[in-house]
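Troubleshooting log. The previous structure file for this entry was overwritten by mistake, so regenerating from the original sequence record. Sequence copied from the archived sheet and checked twice against the printout by T.R.
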Amino acid sequence: MLKYLIRILLIILLASCSSTGGKDHLRSKEITLQIVNTQEKNQHFLLTVITDGKETNQAAAKFPKSFIIITNENKKAKVKLNLRTKYTIKVAKTPVKNIDELQNKKKSGQKVAGRLLANVEFTPTKHSDTLKIKINNDNHKKVPELPNSE
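Regenerated output below.
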């Protein structure tokens, strides 16, 4: 009987040592990616999210990881990202509105993305809610410089 009790206590002790402690139990969070600096309405953007990953002493790395997402009509997309992991987010215009349409156009050989408009590095924290990505937009007209008035 004593052997079983010792084994049970040992199992409980090992299980408690392997669990993460404190407020660090939150490892990922849903973040809103928002495209700004564009005058176009109902424009969708193709976001490529890439990470090399991160190894910690508490968890094995499940990376590298790469995925794509398409913004909605409001130029926003929600994505679940791992905290304290560095991501590279690439932004391009796209004529497609969802992933199914993207796959169908790719299969038929049609172009699904324009040129690269932004390349942003981002490391989410527990305080991150929204990442606003400014894009280079050719539709913005430059204001001509006024001559010096002396």
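Helices lie at 2-18, 99-107. Archived copy saved in two places this time.
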